[in-house]
């Protein structure tokens, strides 16, 4: 970890932590999450883990970006105000571009618009002139292409027609993924803590509803976690009845050692930071000359990258997560020798 920045402002009640994990490949880009933590230590551990994952995600996505993340400690429903967001934006600005923030759980595109009033180092706000906007459809599209790569590995074909897919979480990304899957002819099982969202998906696609604490146990071909992390734990791992786990959630595994357990159980796990990189790719290209279709074409290559990971994992008889970690580290290490030539950040 290169740097932790503790942000406090008594006037607005801001308590935030920015974690910059690695800037070998470029400035650290990662969303800001706002949620309640029991202690500051809990928040610190969470943001450190998330920042590390962003380094690996950017490396595997082929982006010239490093990994960072931030958390604002507080209830977004009760404590999020314009003044708090603007105060946070000023802290981001002081970092001079070493960290670029974006949307995450508890922080939406309109919050980024507010943060942008204080810093130019924020992406993922409202669309302007046909550029930018919510990255959720891009994340979902990348997950779809990743699922197709997994299906090819397990079933010998990327065809999803008739495959039973259980989607855990039907918020912005999960809902968009359900649309893509339905268009492919998949049969949907869904779950969400907000049953009203689930009802909409059930009505639109004829999906079957399962309660949130039971969805990981359902018999399906593909389990797609699209909510918060820690889905696969020591306790839940024996309860999965699927061939593939591939979704948009971050930190799906409570512990990375569980990747080996899944491999031994012949359940194919798509490393989360590889398959869910579509949103990162989308916002990273927000200020480039690329058009939206061009960006989505880059997002679509997630399937190719994941297929490379799976092929190497097969050759080395290793878990895909271990192989993805190794590939990301190899890319970062290959560029480290150029650091003396850097002229900024």
TrEMBL record:
InterPro entries: Aminoacid_DH-like_N_sf, Glu/Leu/Phe/Val/Trp_DH, Glu/Leu/Phe/Val/Trp_DH_C, Glu/Leu/Phe/Val/Trp_DH_dimer, Glu/Leu/Phe/Val_DH_AS, Glu/Phe/Leu/Val/Trp_DH_bac/arc, NAD(P)-bd_dom_sf
Transmembrane segments: none
Keyword annotations from UniProtKB, A to Z: NAD, Nucleotide-binding, Oxidoreductase
Domain Glutamate/phenylalanine/leucine/valine/L-tryptophan dehydrogenase C-terminal: 133-337
Residues the record marks as active site: 69
GO MF annotations in UniProt: nucleotide binding; oxidoreductase activity, acting on the CH-NH2 group of donors, NAD or NADP as acceptor
Classification via Pfam families: ELFV_dehydrog, ELFV_dehydrog_N
Record-listed NAD(+) binding positions: 169-174
GO BP term, example: amino acid metabolic process
Signal peptide extent: none
Homology family: Belongs to the Glu/Leu/Phe/Val dehydrogenases family.
Protein name (database record): Glu/Leu/Phe/Val dehydrogenase dimerisation region
Organism, scientific name: Dethiobacter alkaliphilus AHT 1
